[in-house]
Amino acid sequence: MLRPWADWLLARRQAGEDVYAYFNNDVAGHAVTNARQFAGMLGLQEAGPDELTENSVYNNR
Length: 61
Hints:
Elements: H1 3-14, H2 31-41, E1 45-46, E2 58-59
Antiparallel strand pairs: 1-2
């Protein structure tokens, strides 16, 4: 279910567009797990505390 969105987002990034993803936590609490899976599909790694900026959670390395 996430793969088509990852492909779409990657295409937008390659086109030079700024893109953002938002995960709404549902009753079962899957948002964090889904966001981490999605970031992995995009080739992103979780940023450490010393790497965070006001607007970033993941850094493209």
